[in-house]
Amino acid sequence: MDRTEILCEKDRTMLDEFSRRSFERLTGHSLLTSLPFFSSYYDANIRKEADKDRLIIKEAAAAFEAGKPAFDLDLEAIFERTKTVDAAFLKNLKIPSFSKTVRYDDIADIRIQRIWRISRTVYDLLKNWPDSATFADAVRNAYTEREFNEVITGVLHLYNQETRMLGRSLRLLPPFSRAMNSFSGALFHAMEEATEGMADTYARKLFGDVKVYA
Predict the structure, then answer these.
(1) CB of 184 closer than 8 Å to CB of 170
(2) pLDDT over 50 (residue 213)
(3) What is the DSSP letter of 97?
(4) Positive or negative, the Cα torsion across 67, 69, 70, 73?
(5) Average pLDDT, whole number, for the chain?
(6) In sequence order, what DSSP letters do the residues of 40-87 get, joined into one string?
(7) Pairwise CA distance, residues 186 & 67, whole Å
(8) 3-12: per-residue pLDDT in tens?
(9) Nearest-10 Cα torsion for 201, 206, 209, 213
(10) How many angstroms separate the CA atoms of 163 and 110, rounded?
(11) pLDDT of 54
């Protein structure tokens, strides 16, 4: 059983579901979602974030298996590696822009916080994941339902903030620049609205049967 791969797939599944919920809320608030550019941008951004999380999860899992304490993780080095994911995203993004660069001074603190939260969660789960156990068992061993809810909420909130900052980093040609600012703002609010429900859903899914059969 490849625990690292399971963690990566669970993360991707969660982000896909979160993306769907956020976009449903956004569709009800913004006409911009009907434009191909914005829908393709949003889809590409989700794939980018899943790839970025995979990199973080693998780095943390490798450090754990090597016996390295979580507090000794080189978060700055992992941050630098995540820039390669951003570069691939921007290279493939077909947009009318002056510049497609990320202002890392704006997002560094948020991303490093997110790297730390994800890495710490990887350590918590792997430490509580016996050979015969499932992912759900590991979550229940590591957290209470409330704690797991807070983990999901915290990670998604940081993701929402970074997504908004990334949108502001792109220097687009007018009138796309004004449209992107409007889209980024509406998207952030939709994602924030979806975050609480998403965390509740996943916490109940993993802890619900404990209540029923305890």
Answers:
(1) no
(2) no
(3) E
(4) negative
(5) 85
(6) HHHHHHHHHHHHHHHHHHHHHHHHHHTT--GGG--HHHHHHHHHHHHH
(7) 43
(8) 999 999 999 9
(9) -150
(10) 10
(11) 97
What is the b/e burial string over 168-203, where b = at least 16 CB atoms within 10 angstroms of the residue's CB?
ebbebeeebeebbeebbebbbbbbbbbbeebbebbb
Which DSSP category does 95 fall into?
-
Q: Name the residue type at position 10.
A: K
What gap in Å lies between CA 20 and CA 23, rounded to an integer? 5
Least reliable range by pLDDT among 14-23, 133-142, 163-172, 199-208: 163-172
How far is 206 from 210, CA to CA, in rounded Å?
8
State residue 201's pLDDT score.
Answer: 92
Angle at 119 between CA 170 and CA 60, to 5 degrees: 105
* Residues sharing a CB contact under 8 Å with residue 83, sequence separation 6 or more, in sequence order: 102, 104
- Answer whether 4's CB lies under 8 Å from 57's CB: yes
**Distance (Å, whole) CA 181 – CA 213:** 49
Per the listing, tokens 């918590």 go with 124
Which CA distances in Å does 175 have to 55, 130, 178, 182, 188?
35, 55, 6, 11, 20
175 preceded by a cis bond (ω within 30 of 0): yes
| pLDDT above 80 (res 70) | yes
Q: 170 in helix, strand or coil?
A: coil
Q: How far apart are CA 52 and CA 204, in angstroms?
A: 26
